[in-house]
Amino acid sequence: MALPRAHGLYDPANEHDACGLGFVAELRRGPSHDVVSKGLEILRRLSHRGAAGVDPSTGDGAGILLQIPHAFYERVLSHRDVELPLAGDYGVMQCFLSRDVGRMDAQMGIVEGVVRYHNQKVLGWRDVPVDEGVLGPIARKSRPVMKQLFIARMAPAATFERVLFMIRKRAGRLVSKTLGSIDDGSLAGAERDFYVASCSSKTVVYKGLMLPERIDGFYLDLRQDDVKSALALVHSRFSTNTFPTWDRAHPYRHIAHNGEINTLRGNQNWMGAREPLLASRVFGEHIADFKPIIRPEGSDSASLDNVVDFLVAGGRSLPHVMMMLVPEAWATQDDMPAEKRAFYEYHASLVEPWDGPAALVFTDGTLIGATLDRNGLRPAKYVVTEKGLVVLASELGVLDIAAEDVVSKGRLQPGKMFLVDTAKGRIVSDDEVKREIATRQPYALWIAENKIELAQLPTVESLFMLPAEDRERLQRAFGYSREDLRTLLAAMAANGEEPTGSMGNDAALAVLSDRPISLFRYFKQQFAQVTNPPIDPIREELVMSLVSCVGGEGNLLEETPRQCRLLELPHPILSNAGLAKFLACDIKDFRAATIPITFAVKTDDPAAALAEGIEAACARASRAIDDGASILVLSDRAVDAWHAPIPSLLATAAVHHRLIREGKRVRCGLIVESAEPREVADLALLVGYGAGAVNPYLAFESIHAMVKEGLVAEVDPSTADKNYVKALKKGLLKIMSKMGISTISSYHGAQIFEAVGLAKSVIDPYFTGTASRLGGIGLTEIAREAIARHAEGFRREPHELDVGGVYAWRVEGERHLWTPRSVASLQKAVRLHDAKSYEDYASAINDQSAGLCTLRGMWDFRSDRPPVPIDEIEPAKEIVKRFATGAMSFGSISREAHENLAIAMNRIGGKSNTGEGGEDEGRFVRDANGDLRRSAIKQVASARFGVTAHYLVNADELQIKMAQGAKPGEGGQLPGHKVSEEIAHVRHSTPGVTLISPPPHHDIYSIEDLAQLIFDLKNVTGGRARVSVKLVSESGVGTVAAGVAKAHADAILIAGHDGGTGASPLSSIQHAGTPWELGLAEAQQVLVLNGLRSRVVLQVDGQLKTGRDVAVAALLGAEEFGFATAPLVASGCIMMRKCHLNTCPVGIATQDPVLRARFQGEPEHVVNYFFFVAEELRAIMARLGFRTLAEMVGQVGCLTSPRREAQAPPASPGEKGWGAEKASSLDFTAVLMAPASVEPNELRCTRKQPDLLAKAIDKSVIARVAATLQRRGPSEARVVITNADRAFGALLAGEVATQFGAAGLAEDSIRLEATGTAGQSFGAFAVRGMSIALEGDANDYVGKGLSGGVLAIRPPAASRFVADANVIVGNTVLYGATSGRAFFAGRAGERFAVRNSGASTVVEGVGDHGCEYMTGGVVVILGTTGRNFAAGMSGGIAYVFDEDGAFSKRCNPGMVELSPCDDEDGAAVLALVEEHVARTQSAKGRTLIASWREARGRFVKVLPHEYKRVLASRRPPVEATKAAG
Amino acid sequence: MGDPKGFLKVARANAKERPVAERVAHWAEFHEPPAPEELRAQASRCMDCGIPFCHQGCPLGNLIPEWNDLVFQGRLDDARARLEETNNFPEMTGRVCPAPCEASCVLNIRETPVTIKEIERSIADHVFASPLVPRPPSRRTNKRVAVVGSGPAGLASAQQLARAGHEVHVLERDDRIGGLLRYGIPDFKMEKGIIDARVEQMRAEGVTFHTSVDVGRSPSGDELRRRYDAVVLALGARAPRDLPIEGRAHAGVYFAMEFLEQQNRRVAGDLVPDDGAIVATGKHVVVLGGGDTGSDCVGTSIRQHAASVIQLELMPKPSLVRAPANPWPEWPLVLRTSSSHEEGAAGLLQRDWAVMTKRIRANAARRVVALEAVRVQMSGGKIEEVAGSSFEIPCDLVLVAMGFVGPVREGLVAQLGLLLDARGNVVSRADGATSVPGVFAAGDVSRGQSLVVWAIADGRRVARGVQAWLASAHASTHAVAAR
């Protein structure tokens, strides 16, 4: 029952899981065994959503929750002479006990004692009969003993559930307190060998570590006919790890979860912080048994269950608790009923949302329901039958239900709840249940009387305006550089946006920098990849909120008006005037206390002085709360010549954690008034470590001064302020959303950062819970850097600010790897084929003795193998085959530069990469001179530009880009003016129309979705192309990599944070992700630990430049190596870092023909570069004694980090050598940890992933349409399919594309007729010539990447429900479709036609975010749409039949205009509707055609502004047409 | 950066100069300042590179992109501040620097570089339009520093040390401050008021200047060390490379510096006695050496109305474009034509390459009448005479401008017992410290013959070294012991 302990870079805290889930409930017929069987059937049908690790028979876990099967228990217990009371008068405690008999007896003894302690009666134990035979070996080894304890009710019936809850909590606490856990000191970690799966008089949970289809093989009870229930809740798990953990199987006591809680750390911290205030009449003194409310080491789902459990026991109803913890988006919803808004607003002051993609099913034994988070990113679909059966699951088709039995079908919408009351035998609508809960108290009144908005406070004179001299002194004292002013602040003040940069980050890490660098820079932002999706904060703004509340909270278990006595800020950035208002405000309950955050400048013992300062601040904060302050202002206004500022982040985090520990944190709000924060990343860190609001006063002062001096173009001071705040807000939203977090209240204190280079002695007390895997500097160095900065302001003559040199190289600035010397010597080397010049280049990069830049720069090689003569080593021409160039799209770089790289890589057998954005078909065939301009690696990125079947089959490797180093977790945008005719052609879009890349892949919201996309791609290519997944290094990436390996990727690319050539916000380039050394080492370690390493190829990229870099990467576990900037430099790039301006003077990052003509690169240059690298590597291999690179992979023992002798005299901050001094504190033990006794074969890829296509239904289809494939005319086939048949048509599409090219076949050459419920990705990538008709319904991703085929889906002829009111296809339909047509006689789910660039389609209604990011094609919607229609839609046309006249309110007007249809439009729509009727027999379509004259008038045309402009400019003028006619 | 596309819109416009006919008639500078709009337009061509190669190309690390931008914005005062942050004497480098920055400008890859030198000069001259503002230190240390030599290295280190609060004494052997700047560079390239203005500024900043002090004789090196906490030697590399051939001793054969110094003195108003005067007027002049000094000799000779000037260079004639093995951003080894060369109309000036002088012939009065030379070619890195190619050049003035071999070793250098390297330069560490504690070396004295810009850079670097040394405990012990 245990995960391995933290080991090397593996940390169990990073584990994720995702899954399939569902429930069955009976409305009318009461409990039956049939419900149980159906639940089990669902599990079987969802098995493709679960996963298995190395041991395919073990699985990741599955379970089922039932009502107590009273008759059954009565029967089996009567054999043992235990007489059960009436149903409901006893509880069943389902226990997992120790395999050690002695411990088991002790555990049982304790449990019985607890039952008696709570005055209930022990009836007796029952051994749960199980069949171990069905388990996999790993599960069998770790299997606990299953016993049920029956407890008779002595308490009043109304409180019995609560008493059982208290028994369960106390039992857990006493067992672990008395018996501890088993810890044999092995890697396995301390094992908790006691777990209560459920303890209730209403429900019982059967779960464990087994494949979902085997659960009733294991638990024999489930097969008994008299095991009856009116509801069954089931769950099948896909975990990133493969460790046997019985207790992590779902369902939990009340919930099962599919998704991920991104804000977990903050939720845990805040829950902990609230514990001291918790008090309850109902629990009395027993509340001590419940703490900590959230059991440490539990998963995110388990933690959420802990809180749900607790709050339900505390007296709230289960739906109420779900609404509190996972609220819908309410802040921006003007159409929401007032009482519901008030409910949400009130509860927002009690508890922050548990944010993240979540489909939750929940039950208390009577009510059973499901709810989705505000983004609705996990699927949940339901069917209600005539006979009263309700089925809800991640997918449709999990039970066979005859069409004529279906009364209604639907999907759960974002933020909505679907509730079944089994007692009343009815479905309760979202509106009804929420109205009822929201009107229980006068929440709106409470808010009106208590909550105060900042805007309501009286305006006061702004208190501060610093004289120039003081301002300049502070700028120096707080380490402002001229870049901060010129590059960051001035740009933000002028444009209201963060500045953009290019070409990655090659500057020294903070901990290696000689400069007295800000503490902020030691932290890197984390971001979502694979296990949860980032959000698009611009296009999906409706779910985002920056509203912050400041003040003290109350007791979570209570509901009183007093609890919303808070001050509300529209966002957490306080202007100087705003703060002044605050400080001047004289309202009861809002007393503010200012806590100075400075420390005495003592150079003899700086650490002690700093510690003293922190301690003083913490003590004062604590005292201030005791004295009644509810707002603490941490301020460094008090700095002077003798007092240096405590780094504001350190002060904030220290006070925050101190107050949490003292149980006072939720009694106050924290505001930071500091001169230090200036950029977005700083603000995010302060909020992430506990600040409720921040006043960056010096930034405001600096901007004012610059405006006055005319340094900020064309703005007045107040606009500059507004712009700056606007840029910060946007930036904050971006940082939150890259983690998939929607609201600042959940981001607040969530600590979504990792530290690089901070000692445990700093992390543990002040940044508790933050990952910092290398250790690093302590208070001494932090204090010395702070004092050095302070001295610049207060101890030295006034002088110019520091140059910076972070964004652009400067002699006296920050160190970089790319310097004039390294660029010039590399170019000389490759152009003249000059080995000596290459040596000069390589030593400029490799030899960091004079100044450290990278972690690898600190390591040495060592080997105990004998050296090998160089001529015995694998030749360079073999080695270069392992090299690849980075993903750079044609569009970001010029055609010349792009093809130059491709030709070079094809010449040497390496791989070039298309980047996001398609590839011209002309490049798929060889040139006359034998060169091939095709990119071997074809990227599949979130926008799917140009991703057609033909593109996919022309790849050797398909790379799914989950994140990129330059801006992990963010999307991108190619402005219309850059979309030339040529670029538009390869991207299948319209010239001149802006192209937006969404932050997430809209078909990957979790790990099982990724598995699905991998499956889709393998289908299209018939398994011929390798599928790789690109991840970016961050802590936890190893765990994600393990999940990706289990999702059957063939290769995993770990990219460093510093790579990336594309244009990105500077703060993303600088502050997100970690160096590849860390990510690669972690991925290697976790994959090896899981036994998964040998199934995947591990690749690495990110500022790889030399053979030495390759050697280090290989030893850490990489087998293939990506290079981006270096081959560009070899091609002539001189690191202008102006790629985003289209002004590249060497013709690389530009589309301007004048500049492109300057391109001087030649394939030889790139070839020469790679051979130089390979030769350098061979020399290292010779020295280390490796004959082949394969031998070298993962031999991490060959890397050492030599102890660095302290310099004499020791350097001070700002001097050469200070970085080295700081670096000497780093500890690489965890990074350079060798796996214990693992075969070399397990350290690298030595086997293939299992063949997923063996069972593909397409294979039989292909056989049946062979005639067409052999060019013998049209053919057809009929099939029956189920939800397990996924990606139907994709394999065939790939075949056709391979044989017939981009043009495909004549329309209707291959006609497929399917019946049933289709699995995910139905008709994906179907090409021209394929027509697929389906009678039935389909799940998510229908028509993904449609490449010319025709799809038609209609309800079964026998069905009785109204087609256009019911869902026929799932979410994310026609994602990235490039051409073809699709017809759906029913409604579709969320994100219909997202990023469609050419398909025409008719559907009868869609969910939220319809036509998002669409760039082309025609969408006709014959019914209502959800919210946020047309967000980010830059091209194509949608026609919406505006049935209720309210469409315009649901449309996002940002990029489109609405207009009535003209004649031409009418004709186009009619033609499509006629085809719709012809292909689907749509009743709705028929009705509309019948009254077309009237119907036409109700169609609204949705046309993007930009598209309209482009169309107008391309269309010949009307007069001309007429004249011609 | 003002205009990201400036380099695509504006072509490089070289600095404008007065017509040759006009300028050879006087000794003053002949540069025409650009109009403000033109200056801004030229500054807009700067691309504010991610790696500004110009900034690396400049020994001073001038923050070229930053002041280019300020000039573009019309903020010349700010540009001056930015420029003076790294360069004490931009008015000098703006005139006499060969501008390695422009050579390494990214626009020099396939285009024409930004007119960095011209922009620098414009910023500097903008400063000179009003008197220089002294920046005296707000606090004084009690340390005394002697700077020996007042060339660019000496002046730069003196200014830096004075601004750091030390008491600085500059000791100059000549009668005027400036060293090579004063007597080596002709006025038509740099008028001497520039030096005077700086000297005034430095006096106001607390520097004391002593001229006509021959350190080594009086005071002696040891005295100097006793009297000062630190000594900076900025003696230059004044020992000229001689031509050890037959006839070198004849009258009419001189080192370039002898010739140039006399003319500079005349321009300064000094009386140069007729006997011993070296004048090119009406003479057929041969300048040996194709470098900058040779070029100065050419310009001076033309202004003195020489009958003809022939400039000879031993090395072969460079090509007009870079060789592939000499790529950007390296210093391009190409044929250079100085303003003085432009002044030599056809027939008046002749330049010849790959010529080795063999002998100087004199008449009976032992005055030079001709020079015998032979053509040479490069072969395997060695210079070989071309058989049968000897020829004769009739002439009556020969100026030897073949560079310098290092500092004058006699006197102070020998007296202090300084360690010398193989080439005879004073050995010094990165911070300028020599083998003798408390004695630092800056500029050509340890670097060997080089550019003004390097001298200033050295002066600044060594000033930092002296500063650190004075701040360390070591320095005070030394000073006490020495007193």
Report the count of strand segments of chain A: 53
Fraction in beta strands of chain B: 15-25%
Task: Determine the fraction of residues in helical runs of chain A and give it as a percent range.
Answer: 25-40%
Give the CA-CA distance, first to last residue of chain A: 80 Å
What does this structure look like?
The complex is a heterodimer of chains A (1525) and B (483). With 1525 residues, chain A is an alpha/beta fold. In chain A, 32% of the residues lie in helices and 18% in strands. In chain A, helix 10 crosses helix 11 and helix 31 (1037-1046) crosses helix 33 (1076-1089). Mean pLDDT of chain A is 92; it is low at 1518-1525. Chain B has helices at residues 6-9, 20-23, 36-43, 53-57, 64-72, 76-86, 90-96, 100-104, 116-128, 152-163, 180-183, 193-204, 221-227, 256-268, 292-303, 339-343, 412-416, 444-447, 452-471, 473-482; strands at residues 16-17, 31-32, 144-148, 167-171, 207-210, 230-233, 239-240, 253-255, 284-288, 308-313, 349-353, 355-362, 368-379, 382-385, 391-394, 397-400, 404-406, 439-441. In chain B, strands 5-4-3-6-18 form a 5-stranded parallel beta sheet, with helices on both faces. A 5-stranded parallel beta sheet of chain B has the order 8-16-9-10-11. Chain B is globular. The interface between A and B is large, with 36 and 36 residues.
Describe the structure concisely for a colleague.
Chain A has about 1500 residues and is an alpha/beta fold. The model of chain A is unreliable at about 1520-1525 (pLDDT under 50). Chain B has about 475 residues and is of the alpha/beta class.
